[in-house]
Amino acid sequence: MYKIPFSFLSLLLCLFAAMHLMIAQAKSNDETAVKKNIQSEKNKPSKSAKSNKESQTSKVIKIVGAEDRSKKRMKSPKNNREVRTTVMPRNRVAEPAPSRVSKGTALGLSKKSDELNLKSNASIVVEQQNQRVIFDKNSQIVLPIASITKLLTAMIVLDAKLPLDEELEINDEDAAIYHHSRLIKGTTLTRREALLLALMSSENRAAYTLGRNYPGGITAFMVALNMKAKEIGMKNSSFSDPTGLTSKNVATAEDLAIMIQAAYQYPLIKQFTTTPSHVKEINRREQTFLNSNRLVRSGDMEILIQKTGYISEAGRCLVLMATINNKVFTMVFLDSMGSQSRFADAVRVKEWVESSDEYPALRQLTSVKPVIN
Predict the structure, then answer these.
(1) Backbone angle region of 139, left / alpha / beta, with phi > 0 → left and psi within -120 to 50 → alpha
(2) Which helix (H) or strand (E) element contains residue 281?
(3) Which strand (E) or helix (H) includes residue 335?
(4) Binning pLDDT at 50, 70 and 90, where does residue 332 land?
(5) CA gap 71, 236 in Å, rounded
(6) Separation between Cα atoms, residue 138 and residue 112, nearest integer Å
(7) Is the confidence at residue 44, as pLDDT, over 80?
(8) pTM of the model
(9) With contact defined as beta carbons under 8 Å apart, do 175 and 120 qualify?
(10) What's the burial of 192, exposed, middle or buried (CB within 10 Å: 0-12/13-18/19+)?
(11) Which residues are identified as catalytic?
(12) Would you put residue 119 in left (φ > 0), alpha (ψ -120 to 50) or beta?
């Protein structure tokens, strides 16, 4: 029988032992890996636990967010919206602008009462036929007279005998004197029409252009105007411009009674001051100008001549001559504070005259001299 050499058997046994060892090692490694995987799975949170955790986290976030929003709402309650009336910083309080009072009010004239309970601070009523002063309230106090000035302006223009049909043009100088006017720069109008608008609706640009187009210009015009005032007996008057926009145009109520009686001698001034309205085409559009005196427009009184005036320093002013009980009376009302009170004062005087047979003769007004050349 053939015998296997011992050396060969030894080699086989060694190979078999090596293979067994390798298999055992691999099995051991596999078991170790499996244990690690099992431990890792144990340590991993389950899907439900993860979901619960996320849910709880979301709830916490929502609660915190709600609390923050609640805190913001509670932090400072929303104030009512304030409308700012100035451009001053919010941390500064604007002081109220001082109200502009008329000169008569500043002098305390409003504290003096009268039997007719007039709202005008200065007034005079004169019976024209014998020049008797039948009512007097502060008539000797010098006050601004505003657009009453335009009666003198018209007298100076008419005294100069300038052509009434000559066309005048509103220029930059006229426009600068008063910013609110429908007589825009470039408007043309005759001297007659400028007189009408200045006297009827108290148009300031119309009055100024009349002075500017006087021979020698505004300077010569104002010299003539002040001379005219002295000539007719206005002893306490002074004038700086032809419109009355300046408070430097001053006179007493008695001065104005003299002035309107002088103006009454000019037929054109009587006509223009009592014209209710006038239509003029400006910039291809028709513009209607109304008389500034509502008593003229309404026809409540038989007014022969009149003029209104207003600036803050002068208050509301009115001069007129009217027929009452077949007699002519001159009335002057200065420094009336209400927008309609000067007209109400005129009506009150009219009713007083109508209800009286005799009037008190306080004194005689200086006679008015003829002034038409």
Answers:
(1) alpha
(2) strand 277-282
(3) strand 327-336
(4) very high
(5) 75
(6) 9
(7) no
(8) 0.73
(9) no
(10) middle
(11) 147, 150, 202
(12) alpha
| pLDDT tens, residue by residue, 345-358 | 999 999 999 998 78
Phi-psi region of 130 (alpha: psi -120 to 50; beta: other; left: phi over 0): alpha
Angle between helices 149-159 and 191-200 (to 10 degrees): 160
Distance CA 298, CA 6 (A): 156
Question: SS3 helix, strand, coil % of the chain, rounded to 5?
Answer: 45, 20, 35
- For the stretch 147-175, pLDDT in tens is 999 999 999 999 999 999 999 999 999 99
User: Which string of DSSP letters, residue by residue, matches 126-156?
Assistant: EETTTTEEEEEESTTS-EE-GGGHHHHHHHH
Considering only 109-113, 231-235, 239-243, which range has the smallest mean pLDDT?
109-113
Q: Say if residue 29's pLDDT is above 70.
A: no
Closest by alpha carbon to 214, among 176, 241, 254, 177? 241
Strand 315-324 versus strand 277-282 pairing type? unpaired
Checking if the pLDDT of 196 tops 90, the result is yes
